[in-house]
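SEQUENCE-TO-STRUCTURE ENTRY
===========================

Backbone structure tokens: a row of integers, each naming the local backbone shape at its residue.

Task: work out the structure tokens from the sequence, keeping to the layout shown below.
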Amino acid sequence: MRQCFRNFWLTGTVFALIFVPLNMCHAAFPKAWQLGFQQAESPVMQRVAEFHDFLLMVTGAIAIVVSVLLATVLIRFRKKRNSTPSKTSHNTLLEVIWTAIPTVIVMAILIPSFKLLYFMDVVPESEMTVKIVAHQWYWSYEYPDHDNISYDSYMIPDEEIKENQFRLLSVDNPMVVPVGTTIRLITTSTDVIHSWAVPSLGIKKDSVPGRLNEIWVRIEKEGTYYGQCSELCGPGHGFMPIEVRAVSKGAFQTWVLESKTKLTSLVVPNMLMSPNDFKITRIENAKWPS
């Protein structure tokens, strides 16, 4: 028995030394052998991560208690030690305890989960709005607070991938937003149900034809954050990534001024075309924040 516990402890220690450091190497996109969430870069995702860690501790404690109870039963009440088993059928105190404890656990989970859902669902007073429109199979972004700037965003084909770009994640025209700004995001679709999802920002909202759904985000750190459509929307589902570029407020204002005169709409592909057949007219003159 001691040897068994020793081997279990050694295995767990090796696992922690190998994989825990990998979990700390967060990024704005998934990495090979990554464990856990991506680095939280918005208030919503920070609370999601905290709630996840809380649930992990609760489930871990439950697993330990249940394991101890099972081990106790196996050792103390085995046939060799108890040739004449107890015939007790009821124990009022024990029945009250095993009913009350799960109730307390459920309430301890229920209250913070409702608070988190409310925090995610209720859009606070926003400083700007971005409209996200889903198509088969690309995204369009509109800025109604900035002279209705609008443009389409397509995945960069494999043969055009450059250094510091990522296959199936990088796009030609990312969504540009300022840091330190509460942004209201409204999303819809022109054809089927899509889902605009960026894991590091804690966002996953369905884009439904004929309906406007809203969510909010506030990014405090400059950087580039990646996501993908998370609703099976057709054969091009895996080819409509999301790239969000968070820049300083000054850089955003510069981009807005340049975009008012240089951005033009892109060619909308036929719904029956495959992703490889898209004929894209790219934005050549706009200067995208680096």
Q: What stands out?
A: The radius of gyration is 26 Å. The mean pLDDT is 81. The first helix runs from residue 2 to 23.
